[in-house]
Design a protein that fits this description.
This protein is α/β, with parallel strands linked by helices. Helices cover about 55% and strands about 10% of the residues. It is globular.
Amino acid sequence: MKFSDVIGNTEVKEALVRMADSGRVPHAIMFHENEGCGALALAVAFVQYLNCKSHNGEDSCGLCPSCNQISKLIWPDIHFVFPVAGEKVTSDNFIQKWRDLFIRNPFFMENELYETLELEKKASSISVADAKNVLNALSLSSFTDGYRAVVIWLPEKMNQDAANRLLKIVEEPSERTMFLFVTHNPERVLKTIRSRCQLIRVLPAEKEEIAKALPRWTGIDPEQAEYAAEFATGSIGVAIRSLAEHDENVEMMDLFMQLMDGILGRDFMRVLETGEAISALDSREKQKAFCKFAGDCVRKIYMLQRDMGAIAGIRPEDMDFFNDAAKRCSQGFCQKALAVISRANMLVVRNVNQKMVFTNMVDRLFVI
């Protein structure tokens, strides 16, 4: 993974190169991104640049043995930690699936990892078992004369016991050892970990940059790439996922349209039936995805009500529905609806009974 493989964020790449070339590499860096914007790829590219014997001052060569191994995530001195399910289960149990997913799509979303690991129906976290594995790995001598790196993806999923185990080594690692954290929500990372890191913001990409990169990662034609980039909100991961999830998005749109038809048509039984259909989606991840999708749809209605339809990102085939909803919804509906949907998502995350969550959600939406 070279810096040139990561779209956008030129200033961040230049700052990382300056760190590496000056020899002043922080012992802990936390990359903060909107999901799918390439922070994990950037972290791997940084490790590759640091260990490349033939870099040109701007990027790694991509050809030397260290570049070849790091690009495949098989460099012996790079260790990965990510959320898994089970107290005694560790990231190492899934490392080959992690590698395969990264090589296929280094901008993958959280849901995609859980689907790949077949953990979408389980609550995942970074546990003490993974922390022990990191400590054991770093207690051994380095396999190479380069930098050792521990890449921890989604540290906000780390429990307190795991964080306590890692605190000392994160703060005072051995020479030429660094921790690279990739987070989507730094406020949810335990303060004891966050405070020991240098925070680097990975920015969303421009639509043009996403459109240019998509054909390489998906094989679609440039016209499709431009359309997908239009609705990606600066995240190539979102664009790739949306292309792969077309059928799922159709299902989500059908559910949202049924819900709004019931609300606006004052058909309470239809609203309840839609709530049951949402709760029957076959995983918590899909239910969370619906909450996100519904929230996005409500925002589009709000933007239409404020004459901002041109930048709302509405597909032509959905425009009639959204225009009708914008006319029929009260001016205060969208703000209240977003709060209700956000609360439902929070309760799903907390493992509250799904049928209760979504029955309550549609009931609250109906009475707005």
